[in-house]
Amino acid sequence: MPRRSSNKLSRISPQIIIIGALLAIVAAAGLALMLTKSEPETSAALVPRAARVERVEGEVGIARAFADERESEPAWTDATINAPLTVGDRIYAKDGSRATL
Fold first, then answer.
1. CB contact at 8 A, 53 and 86
2. Using CA atoms, how far apart are residues 32 and 98, in angstroms rounded to an integer?
3. Around Cβ 86, how many Cβ atoms within 10 Å?
4. Beta strands in 22-74, from DSSP E residues, in sequence order
5. What percent of the chain is modeled with pLDDT above 90?
6. DSSP 8-class letter at 58
7. Residue 27: how many CB atoms within 10 A of its CB?
8. How many angstroms separate the CA atoms of 94 and 92, rounded?
9. How far apart are CA 28 and CA 25, in angstroms?
Protein backbone atom coordinates (compact mmCIF):
# COMPACT_ATOMS: atom_id res chain seq x y z
CA MET A 1 0.00 0.00 0.00
CA PRO A 2 2.71 2.55 0.70
CA ARG A 3 3.86 2.21 -2.90
CA ARG A 4 0.45 3.28 -4.22
CA SER A 5 0.43 6.52 -2.18
CA SER A 6 3.93 7.40 -3.34
CA ASN A 7 2.81 6.80 -6.91
CA LYS A 8 -0.06 9.27 -6.46
CA LEU A 9 2.33 11.94 -5.17
CA SER A 10 4.73 11.37 -8.00
CA ARG A 11 1.92 12.05 -10.51
CA ILE A 12 1.80 15.73 -9.41
CA SER A 13 4.28 17.68 -11.47
CA PRO A 14 6.93 19.73 -9.62
CA GLN A 15 5.78 22.90 -11.40
CA ILE A 16 2.29 22.59 -9.86
CA ILE A 17 3.79 22.07 -6.40
CA ILE A 18 6.01 25.14 -6.80
CA ILE A 19 3.12 27.29 -8.09
CA GLY A 20 0.90 26.13 -5.20
CA ALA A 21 3.62 26.96 -2.66
CA LEU A 22 4.16 30.41 -4.19
CA LEU A 23 0.43 31.13 -4.14
CA ALA A 24 0.27 30.13 -0.47
CA ILE A 25 3.21 32.43 0.36
CA VAL A 26 1.69 35.36 -1.54
CA ALA A 27 -1.70 34.84 0.16
CA ALA A 28 -0.11 34.71 3.62
CA ALA A 29 1.97 37.84 2.93
CA GLY A 30 -1.10 39.70 1.63
CA LEU A 31 -3.12 38.74 4.69
CA ALA A 32 -0.33 39.83 7.03
CA LEU A 33 0.00 43.15 5.18
CA MET A 34 -3.74 43.74 5.27
CA LEU A 35 -3.89 43.12 9.03
CA THR A 36 -0.97 45.42 9.83
CA LYS A 37 -1.98 48.28 7.51
CA SER A 38 -5.66 48.50 8.47
CA GLU A 39 -7.14 51.98 8.92
CA PRO A 40 -6.98 53.20 12.52
CA GLU A 41 -10.31 53.89 14.14
CA THR A 42 -11.06 57.38 15.31
CA SER A 43 -10.44 58.00 18.96
CA ALA A 44 -14.09 58.91 19.53
CA ALA A 45 -15.19 55.52 18.20
CA LEU A 46 -12.90 53.74 20.67
CA VAL A 47 -14.30 55.45 23.76
CA PRO A 48 -17.44 53.78 25.10
CA ARG A 49 -20.44 55.71 26.32
CA ALA A 50 -20.31 55.59 30.10
CA ALA A 51 -23.44 57.31 31.40
CA ARG A 52 -26.45 59.54 30.67
CA VAL A 53 -27.77 62.60 32.46
CA GLU A 54 -30.89 61.53 34.34
CA ARG A 55 -32.00 64.75 36.01
CA VAL A 56 -30.96 68.42 35.89
CA GLU A 57 -31.92 71.06 38.45
CA GLY A 58 -30.51 74.54 37.97
CA GLU A 59 -27.56 75.48 35.78
CA VAL A 60 -25.46 72.44 34.81
CA GLY A 61 -22.95 72.40 31.97
CA ILE A 62 -21.05 69.71 30.06
CA ALA A 63 -17.69 70.05 28.30
CA ARG A 64 -17.11 67.25 25.79
CA ALA A 65 -13.75 65.51 25.88
CA PHE A 66 -13.40 65.17 22.09
CA ALA A 67 -15.24 68.32 20.94
CA ASP A 68 -12.24 70.25 19.63
CA GLU A 69 -8.78 69.34 20.87
CA ARG A 70 -7.14 72.37 19.20
CA GLU A 71 -8.77 74.87 21.57
CA SER A 72 -7.28 75.38 25.01
CA GLU A 73 -10.65 76.22 26.62
CA PRO A 74 -13.46 73.63 26.40
CA ALA A 75 -16.80 74.57 24.88
CA TRP A 76 -19.43 74.31 27.61
CA THR A 77 -23.02 73.44 26.70
CA ASP A 78 -26.13 73.19 28.85
CA ALA A 79 -26.78 69.71 30.21
CA THR A 80 -30.05 68.17 29.09
CA ILE A 81 -31.89 65.05 30.17
CA ASN A 82 -30.56 61.87 28.47
CA ALA A 83 -27.42 63.61 27.22
CA PRO A 84 -24.77 60.89 26.77
CA LEU A 85 -21.56 61.22 28.76
CA THR A 86 -18.33 59.47 28.01
CA VAL A 87 -14.88 59.11 29.50
CA GLY A 88 -13.20 62.51 29.74
CA ASP A 89 -16.35 64.68 29.66
CA ARG A 90 -16.52 67.35 32.37
CA ILE A 91 -19.62 68.40 34.29
CA TYR A 92 -20.08 71.69 36.10
CA ALA A 93 -22.96 72.59 38.41
CA LYS A 94 -23.31 76.10 39.83
CA ASP A 95 -24.07 76.64 43.53
CA GLY A 96 -27.49 75.23 44.38
CA SER A 97 -27.70 73.22 41.12
CA ARG A 98 -27.84 69.44 40.87
CA ALA A 99 -27.43 66.78 38.25
CA THR A 100 -28.02 63.03 38.46
CA LEU A 101 -26.14 60.66 36.19
1. no
2. 53
3. 14
4. 49-52, 55-57, 60-63
5. 26
6. S
7. 10
8. 7
9. 5
